[in-house]
Amino acid sequence: METTRRELEQDIQTREAALYEEWKRTGPHLEEYASEFAGTAFLLVCVVGAVALTFSPASPMLHWLPSLSLRLALIGLLLGAASWLVALSPPGRLSGAHLDPAVSAGFWLLGKMHGRDLLGYIVSQMAGAVAGTFLGGVVFGGAARSVQMGSLHPGPHVSFWETVGGELAATFVLTLAIYTSVSFPKVMRWTPGIALIVLTLLIGVDGNYSGAGMNPARWFGPALAARVWRDAAAYAVVPIIAALAAAGLRRQMTAHPTPHTAKLFHDPRYRSIFKNDGAPSQAPAHIHAQARRESNKTSE
Q: How far apart are CA 183 and CA 23, in angstroms?
Protein backbone atom coordinates (compact mmCIF):
# COMPACT_ATOMS: atom_id res chain seq x y z
CA MET A 1 0.00 0.00 0.00
CA GLU A 2 2.85 2.38 0.91
CA THR A 3 4.55 1.71 -2.41
CA THR A 4 1.29 2.32 -4.26
CA ARG A 5 0.75 5.61 -2.43
CA ARG A 6 4.29 6.71 -3.22
CA GLU A 7 3.91 5.77 -6.87
CA LEU A 8 0.62 7.67 -7.01
CA GLU A 9 2.25 10.83 -5.62
CA GLN A 10 5.12 10.50 -8.08
CA ASP A 11 2.62 10.13 -10.93
CA ILE A 12 0.77 13.24 -9.74
CA GLN A 13 4.01 15.22 -9.61
CA THR A 14 4.99 14.06 -13.11
CA ARG A 15 1.60 14.99 -14.54
CA GLU A 16 1.60 18.33 -12.71
CA ALA A 17 5.01 19.24 -14.13
CA ALA A 18 3.85 18.47 -17.67
CA LEU A 19 0.56 20.36 -17.24
CA TYR A 20 2.41 23.30 -15.66
CA GLU A 21 4.73 23.59 -18.66
CA GLU A 22 1.77 23.38 -21.03
CA TRP A 23 -0.02 26.11 -19.06
CA LYS A 24 3.08 28.31 -19.26
CA ARG A 25 3.08 27.87 -23.03
CA THR A 26 -0.62 28.23 -23.80
CA GLY A 27 -2.55 29.26 -20.69
CA PRO A 28 -4.03 32.69 -19.98
CA HIS A 29 -1.66 34.88 -18.02
CA LEU A 30 -3.93 37.88 -17.54
CA GLU A 31 -3.05 38.26 -13.86
CA GLU A 32 0.61 38.66 -14.73
CA TYR A 33 -0.20 41.23 -17.41
CA ALA A 34 -2.43 43.12 -14.97
CA SER A 35 0.39 43.09 -12.42
CA GLU A 36 2.78 44.62 -14.95
CA PHE A 37 0.17 47.24 -15.81
CA ALA A 38 -0.35 48.18 -12.15
CA GLY A 39 3.35 48.11 -11.30
CA THR A 40 4.32 50.29 -14.24
CA ALA A 41 1.48 52.70 -13.47
CA PHE A 42 2.77 53.06 -9.91
CA LEU A 43 6.30 53.62 -11.19
CA LEU A 44 5.14 56.41 -13.50
CA VAL A 45 3.19 58.13 -10.74
CA CYS A 46 6.49 58.11 -8.85
CA VAL A 47 8.35 59.40 -11.93
CA VAL A 48 6.02 62.38 -12.24
CA GLY A 49 6.18 63.05 -8.52
CA ALA A 50 9.96 62.69 -8.27
CA VAL A 51 10.66 65.03 -11.19
CA ALA A 52 8.12 67.55 -9.88
CA LEU A 53 9.67 67.39 -6.42
CA THR A 54 13.19 68.02 -7.64
CA PHE A 55 12.71 70.30 -10.65
CA SER A 56 9.44 72.19 -10.34
CA PRO A 57 10.15 75.94 -10.05
CA ALA A 58 7.89 76.04 -6.99
CA SER A 59 9.68 73.19 -5.22
CA PRO A 60 11.84 74.09 -2.19
CA MET A 61 14.16 71.28 -3.26
CA LEU A 62 15.81 73.71 -5.69
CA HIS A 63 17.08 75.63 -2.67
CA TRP A 64 17.61 72.72 -0.31
CA LEU A 65 19.58 70.69 -2.88
CA PRO A 66 21.06 73.11 -5.43
CA SER A 67 23.42 70.51 -6.94
CA LEU A 68 21.94 69.21 -10.21
CA SER A 69 23.77 65.88 -9.94
CA LEU A 70 22.48 65.30 -6.42
CA ARG A 71 18.91 66.09 -7.44
CA LEU A 72 19.20 63.66 -10.34
CA ALA A 73 20.64 61.04 -8.01
CA LEU A 74 17.69 61.63 -5.69
CA ILE A 75 15.34 60.90 -8.60
CA GLY A 76 17.26 57.70 -9.24
CA LEU A 77 17.01 56.74 -5.59
CA LEU A 78 13.26 57.40 -5.51
CA LEU A 79 12.59 55.46 -8.70
CA GLY A 80 14.82 52.62 -7.58
CA ALA A 81 12.91 52.50 -4.30
CA ALA A 82 9.60 52.48 -6.19
CA SER A 83 10.79 49.56 -8.34
CA TRP A 84 11.99 47.77 -5.21
CA LEU A 85 8.58 48.18 -3.57
CA VAL A 86 6.81 46.82 -6.66
CA ALA A 87 9.18 43.84 -6.90
CA LEU A 88 8.49 42.86 -3.29
CA SER A 89 4.73 43.39 -3.52
CA PRO A 90 2.39 40.45 -4.27
CA PRO A 91 1.78 41.64 -7.87
CA GLY A 92 5.53 42.03 -8.38
CA ARG A 93 6.24 38.56 -7.02
CA LEU A 94 3.67 37.23 -9.47
CA SER A 95 4.77 38.95 -12.68
CA GLY A 96 8.44 39.49 -11.86
CA ALA A 97 8.18 43.31 -11.83
CA HIS A 98 9.93 43.95 -15.14
CA LEU A 99 8.12 47.31 -15.59
CA ASP A 100 10.25 47.93 -18.67
CA PRO A 101 9.89 46.55 -22.23
CA ALA A 102 13.68 46.51 -22.54
CA VAL A 103 14.08 44.26 -19.50
CA SER A 104 11.40 41.89 -20.80
CA ALA A 105 12.97 41.79 -24.27
CA GLY A 106 16.29 40.73 -22.76
CA PHE A 107 14.65 37.95 -20.75
CA TRP A 108 12.98 36.77 -23.95
CA LEU A 109 16.35 36.55 -25.71
CA LEU A 110 17.72 34.64 -22.73
CA GLY A 111 15.05 32.00 -23.29
CA LYS A 112 12.92 32.89 -20.28
CA MET A 113 9.74 34.21 -21.97
CA HIS A 114 7.35 32.93 -24.59
CA GLY A 115 6.79 35.39 -27.42
CA ARG A 116 3.13 35.97 -26.61
CA ASP A 117 4.01 36.81 -23.00
CA LEU A 118 6.65 39.26 -24.18
CA LEU A 119 3.95 40.98 -26.25
CA GLY A 120 1.52 40.88 -23.32
CA TYR A 121 4.09 42.41 -20.99
CA ILE A 122 5.07 45.19 -23.38
CA VAL A 123 1.46 46.18 -24.08
CA SER A 124 0.68 46.14 -20.35
CA GLN A 125 3.76 48.18 -19.48
CA MET A 126 3.08 50.82 -22.11
CA ALA A 127 -0.58 51.10 -21.13
CA GLY A 128 0.36 51.24 -17.45
CA ALA A 129 2.83 54.03 -18.15
CA VAL A 130 0.12 56.11 -19.82
CA ALA A 131 -2.33 55.52 -16.96
CA GLY A 132 0.31 56.26 -14.33
CA THR A 133 1.43 59.46 -16.01
CA PHE A 134 -2.09 60.87 -16.24
CA LEU A 135 -2.76 59.85 -12.63
CA GLY A 136 0.48 61.56 -11.62
CA GLY A 137 -0.72 64.68 -13.41
CA VAL A 138 -3.92 64.62 -11.37
CA VAL A 139 -2.09 64.05 -8.08
CA PHE A 140 0.71 66.60 -8.59
CA GLY A 141 -1.23 69.12 -10.67
CA GLY A 142 0.62 72.27 -11.68
CA ALA A 143 3.95 70.99 -10.39
CA ALA A 144 3.70 68.04 -12.81
CA ARG A 145 2.76 70.30 -15.72
CA SER A 146 5.66 72.63 -14.95
CA VAL A 147 8.11 69.77 -15.60
CA GLN A 148 6.22 68.49 -18.67
CA MET A 149 4.89 65.47 -16.76
CA GLY A 150 8.42 64.21 -16.16
CA SER A 151 9.15 63.82 -19.88
CA LEU A 152 12.64 62.85 -20.98
CA HIS A 153 15.02 65.11 -22.84
CA PRO A 154 18.80 65.31 -23.22
CA GLY A 155 20.95 67.89 -21.52
CA PRO A 156 21.88 71.22 -23.10
CA HIS A 157 23.88 70.95 -26.33
CA VAL A 158 23.64 67.13 -26.35
CA SER A 159 23.11 65.87 -29.91
CA PHE A 160 20.80 63.06 -31.00
CA TRP A 161 23.65 60.60 -31.45
CA GLU A 162 25.12 61.53 -28.10
CA THR A 163 21.70 60.85 -26.60
CA VAL A 164 21.67 57.48 -28.34
CA GLY A 165 25.08 56.68 -26.90
CA GLY A 166 24.04 57.68 -23.40
CA GLU A 167 20.84 55.61 -23.48
CA LEU A 168 22.70 52.66 -24.97
CA ALA A 169 25.38 52.68 -22.29
CA ALA A 170 23.06 53.31 -19.34
CA THR A 171 20.51 50.67 -20.33
CA PHE A 172 23.24 48.14 -21.08
CA VAL A 173 24.73 48.58 -17.61
CA LEU A 174 21.34 48.39 -15.86
CA THR A 175 20.07 45.32 -17.70
CA LEU A 176 23.37 43.47 -17.50
CA ALA A 177 23.36 44.05 -13.74
CA ILE A 178 19.81 42.63 -13.52
CA TYR A 179 20.48 39.60 -15.74
CA THR A 180 23.69 38.82 -13.90
CA SER A 181 22.13 39.17 -10.47
CA VAL A 182 19.23 36.80 -11.20
CA SER A 183 21.65 34.27 -12.68
CA PHE A 184 23.23 33.46 -9.31
CA PRO A 185 20.95 31.71 -6.79
CA LYS A 186 22.73 33.23 -3.78
CA VAL A 187 22.49 36.75 -5.19
CA MET A 188 19.12 36.82 -6.97
CA ARG A 189 17.10 37.80 -3.88
CA TRP A 190 19.11 41.04 -3.72
CA THR A 191 18.30 42.06 -7.30
CA PRO A 192 15.84 44.86 -6.35
CA GLY A 193 18.47 46.41 -4.07
CA ILE A 194 21.15 46.11 -6.73
CA ALA A 195 18.84 47.75 -9.27
CA LEU A 196 18.16 50.57 -6.80
CA ILE A 197 21.88 51.31 -6.42
CA VAL A 198 22.54 51.10 -10.16
CA LEU A 199 19.59 53.37 -10.99
CA THR A 200 20.71 55.95 -8.46
CA LEU A 201 24.21 56.06 -9.92
CA LEU A 202 23.15 56.00 -13.58
CA ILE A 203 20.51 58.71 -13.28
CA GLY A 204 22.87 60.83 -11.20
CA VAL A 205 25.60 60.55 -13.83
CA ASP A 206 23.60 60.35 -17.08
CA GLY A 207 20.42 62.23 -16.17
CA ASN A 208 21.68 65.57 -17.49
CA TYR A 209 23.31 63.97 -20.52
CA SER A 210 20.93 61.61 -22.31
CA GLY A 211 18.13 61.82 -19.74
CA ALA A 212 18.78 58.30 -18.43
CA GLY A 213 15.40 56.89 -19.45
CA MET A 214 16.46 53.25 -19.95
CA ASN A 215 12.80 52.32 -20.34
CA PRO A 216 10.54 52.87 -23.39
CA ALA A 217 7.43 52.82 -21.18
CA ARG A 218 8.89 55.44 -18.83
CA TRP A 219 9.48 57.62 -21.90
CA PHE A 220 6.16 56.98 -23.62
CA GLY A 221 3.73 57.89 -20.83
CA PRO A 222 5.10 61.40 -20.19
CA ALA A 223 5.78 61.97 -23.90
CA LEU A 224 2.14 61.27 -24.72
CA ALA A 225 0.80 63.37 -21.85
CA ALA A 226 3.03 66.37 -22.55
CA ARG A 227 3.31 65.93 -26.34
CA VAL A 228 7.11 65.93 -26.13
CA TRP A 229 8.46 63.66 -28.86
CA ARG A 230 12.03 64.89 -29.19
CA ASP A 231 14.60 62.11 -29.81
CA ALA A 232 11.84 59.50 -29.69
CA ALA A 233 13.94 56.78 -31.31
CA ALA A 234 16.66 57.20 -28.70
CA TYR A 235 14.22 56.59 -25.87
CA ALA A 236 11.87 54.07 -27.50
CA VAL A 237 14.19 51.81 -29.49
CA VAL A 238 17.73 52.15 -28.17
CA PRO A 239 16.99 50.75 -24.67
CA ILE A 240 15.62 47.57 -26.23
CA ILE A 241 18.72 47.21 -28.39
CA ALA A 242 20.91 47.75 -25.33
CA ALA A 243 19.01 45.16 -23.29
CA LEU A 244 19.27 42.61 -26.10
CA ALA A 245 23.01 43.28 -26.28
CA ALA A 246 23.32 42.79 -22.51
CA ALA A 247 21.36 39.53 -22.75
CA GLY A 248 23.56 38.39 -25.63
CA LEU A 249 26.68 39.06 -23.58
CA ARG A 250 25.18 37.28 -20.59
CA ARG A 251 24.64 34.19 -22.75
CA GLN A 252 28.33 34.13 -23.63
CA MET A 253 29.49 34.14 -20.02
CA THR A 254 30.69 30.80 -18.71
CA ALA A 255 29.46 31.28 -15.12
CA HIS A 256 25.67 30.86 -14.93
CA PRO A 257 24.95 32.14 -18.47
CA THR A 258 21.19 31.60 -18.08
CA PRO A 259 19.14 33.45 -15.44
CA HIS A 260 17.97 31.28 -12.57
CA THR A 261 14.73 33.26 -12.62
CA ALA A 262 13.15 36.02 -14.69
CA LYS A 263 11.66 37.68 -11.61
CA LEU A 264 13.42 40.55 -9.90
CA PHE A 265 12.37 39.00 -6.60
CA HIS A 266 11.61 35.29 -6.80
CA ASP A 267 9.21 33.86 -4.25
CA PRO A 268 8.70 30.08 -4.61
CA ARG A 269 5.17 30.41 -3.19
CA TYR A 270 4.07 32.16 -6.40
CA ARG A 271 3.47 30.64 -9.81
CA SER A 272 5.72 31.47 -12.74
CA ILE A 273 4.95 31.86 -16.42
CA PHE A 274 8.63 31.82 -17.35
CA LYS A 275 10.44 29.10 -19.26
CA ASN A 276 13.44 27.10 -18.10
CA ASP A 277 13.08 28.13 -14.46
CA GLY A 278 15.99 27.14 -12.27
CA ALA A 279 14.11 28.30 -9.17
CA PRO A 280 11.09 26.42 -7.81
CA SER A 281 7.62 27.89 -8.10
CA GLN A 282 4.08 26.92 -7.11
CA ALA A 283 1.88 25.64 -9.93
CA PRO A 284 -1.62 27.15 -10.07
CA ALA A 285 -4.13 25.31 -7.89
CA HIS A 286 -6.19 24.17 -10.86
CA ILE A 287 -3.11 22.51 -12.38
CA HIS A 288 -2.50 20.48 -9.23
CA ALA A 289 -6.17 19.51 -9.03
CA GLN A 290 -6.23 18.43 -12.68
CA ALA A 291 -3.09 16.33 -12.24
CA ARG A 292 -4.62 14.57 -9.22
CA ARG A 293 -7.89 13.89 -11.06
CA GLU A 294 -6.09 12.43 -14.06
CA SER A 295 -3.84 10.27 -11.89
CA ASN A 296 -6.74 8.96 -9.81
CA LYS A 297 -8.73 8.14 -12.94
CA THR A 298 -5.79 6.20 -14.38
CA SER A 299 -5.22 4.24 -11.17
CA GLU A 300 -8.84 3.13 -10.85
A: 24
